[in-house]
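Hi R.,

Here's the chain you asked about this morning:
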Amino acid sequence: MQIMRRLYDWVLSWSESPYGSWALFMLAFAESSFFPIPPDVLLIALAVGAHKKAFRFALICTAGSVLGGMLGYLIGWQFMALIGERIVALFGFADKFTQVEALYNTWDAWVVFIAGFTPIPYKVFTIAAGLFNLNFPIFVLASALGRAGRFCLVAGMIYFFGPAIKAFIDRYFNLLVTVFTLLLIGGFVLIARVM
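And the predicted structure, written out as tokens:
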């Protein structure tokens, strides 16, 4: 727990640096395939510090995350036995991997989209996408939509409500993302039934 707190503080320290945007990109890249701290922490800190640039930071975060997701895909596709299994075990998903496979068999790219948008460990699903040979262009599209939606939601709240929203986001982030995901999926189901 102490190590995670130090990592969290280290990530936040980059918001005071002139290299904050680069750190955000690298953090988003690493988190999508192996790093434990989500980039939202630094995204929120940077956006609060310069809320007019919130969407710019969200796009930087999305680009890093999608490229990192491609690395996760490569790990699952080519290096699962070498490093993929260790990463999955580190995040406590080793015994749940058959459930992840069942999700991919049933929902395909929707799993990547939802994993990219919600607080569940996206890295596990990028690695699984490579392992289960999900269509790569579809994987990239689902990743881009899921990650952009997540990061733009955070950026939008800070842009429109200003720095005062930070405490609210910090406290209710998982709940907000879960509710938004359910509404989004419900909207897709409704559209599918109407058409």
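The CA atoms of residues 129 and 135 lie 8 Å apart.

Let me know if you need anything else.
M.
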